[in-house]
Amino acid sequence: MFVIRFTIYDGSGAASFVGPCHAIKMLAAACSRHPTTLNELLEYTRPFDADFVDAVRAGLAIFDEHNTPEHPEAFHQLLATRPSAQLPPFRVLDDATRQASLEPATTGLILFNLPERRIIQVQNSYADLERAGRGRVRLGGRPTSMLYHYRLPAEWRIVP
After folding, report:
1. What are the distances in angstroms from CA 124 to CA 4, 5, 28, 40, 129?
2. Is 2 domain-assigned?
3. 97 part of a folded domain
4. For residue 3, is it within any domain?
C-alpha cells in the first residue's frame, strides 16, 4: 500500500502520522470546515473513514501514555529501529521527533498548518491536491459507492 506522512500543526503543537494516500483528499475536505485543532480536523475527517481516524487517535493516545516533553525516550527507541513509514502516530516534542515529522513516507510528506490555513505538499508523488475534488467514503477500510465532495475556501492556500 502506498502511504504518505501527514504532519499537522494546530498552534499548540504538531502531530505526525502515516496514512493511506486517499487520506489527502479527506483531510482537505475536513479543512474546508476550518478546523482550529487536530481534534477538530480528525472529527471532520471521521465521516469519510472512521477507521482511519480511530487508528490515528489510538496511536496518539498510546504515544501520550509513554512519552512526555521531559521524557520522550520511549519514542526515541522506535526512531532508532523503525523506518519512517512504519512509525506509529506521534507528537512533536523535541528535535528528534521534529525531524521524524519531516521525513517523507513512501509517496511523500504533506504539512497542514491550521492557524495559517496552509497545506504544504513538501513531497507528493501520489497526486497533487486540488482545491476542489471528490473522494470515496470508506467503511471498514474499504471504499464504498458513496462519494463526498469538497471545495477549499479561498483563504486556504495549497503550496506549491
Report:
1. 8, 10, 14, 24, 9
2. no
3. yes
4. no
Name the residue with cell 500500500.
1
DSSP annotation of 49 reads B
Per-10-residue mean pLDDT, the chain, length 160 = 94 97 97 98 98 98 96 95 95 97 97 98 95 97 96 96
Q: Structurally, how many domains does the chain consist of?
A: 1
Phi and psi at 110, nearest 5°, equal -130, 130
> How do beta strands 14-20 and 3-9 pair?
antiparallel
Backbone angles phi, psi at 20, to 5 degrees: -65, 150
Instruction: Report the alpha-carbon distance of residue 126 to residue 11 in Å, rounded.
Output: 28
The radius of gyration of the chain's CA atoms, rounded to the nearest angstrom, is 15
C-alpha–C-alpha distance, residues 155 and 142, integer Å: 32
